[in-house]
Amino acid sequence: MKNKAAVEYRYNRLTWPEMNEAIQLQKLVLLPTGSTEQHGRHLPLDTDVFLSEEVCLEVGRRAPDKILVLPPIAYGLNLHHIDFPGTVHIEPEVFIAFCLNITKSVAYHGFEKILLVNGHGSNGPLIDLIARKTTLQTSSLCFACGYASSLWDKFSEIRESAVAAHADEFETSLYLHLAPDRVQMDKAEKGDDRMGKYVTSDSTSRLVRFNDYWGRWSQLGVHGDPTVASAEKGEIIFEAAVEGLVDLIDELREWPIAARADMHENPVQKDIRW
Fold first, then answer.
1. Rg (Cα) of the chain, in Å, rounded?
2. What element of type H or E holds 30?
3. Residue 254: pLDDT band by 50, 70, 90 thresholds?
4. Helix and strand tally (H, E) in the chain?
5. Residue spans per domain, the chain
6. Among 6, 108, 122, 259, which is least packed, fewest CB within 10 Å?
7. pLDDT tens digits for range 65-90
8. Class of domain 4-254
């Protein structure tokens, strides 16, 4: 019979002796990140963190011997949504410092591979920095991705709307698949952002990065068309997300931690810290 550390995929369900066994197994540790923010009149505030965590937990159920899933980060960079009641904003410096304390703790205990799995667009640049800082400040390797990173080709085969951005066909379909009782489709409406030749209000332009207060251009809190969402599309999205993440994890677990080579010909000041 396998020990608990070999079959338990939820980080906080292990005891400290069992954690020692998980470290010996060198499971890859996942940290889901999301937000608590408005998602239109039809989706709950937990949309980003719920979807991200559910994908990670399903990966754990399918590959319990390979990963551990940390409790998710349910808050993120959200000042642009603050005009909508319920939204919680975390300053970027605070978010980075908090998440970095988590990844450093995991590295300190001896885990060599960590993966940040993001579900909130505005967290993207922040988790990239957290992953880089973790890798450069510890002896572990830390990677970052979105839970949806590998599935856009599959989504393009089934989508009916042109824009995938926020509380849209994509997120609504996925939520309908996972928890249909929480989705109020009778309140779903299509919403567009303000678009110019080079700039959009919701950072959907590939040319210029810009994100304005949503209260300046939207009274719905929606960017995209959730009215064409369905649970059937959500199931396809979910399977593609999970399968893509499992495949990524297999590669990351084999990724080498190579020895560094110092090219200096003269002594360096190794006590300097950045």
1. 20
2. strand 28-33
3. very high
4. 8, 6
5. 4-254
6. 259
7. 999 999 999 999 999 999 999 999 99
8. alpha beta
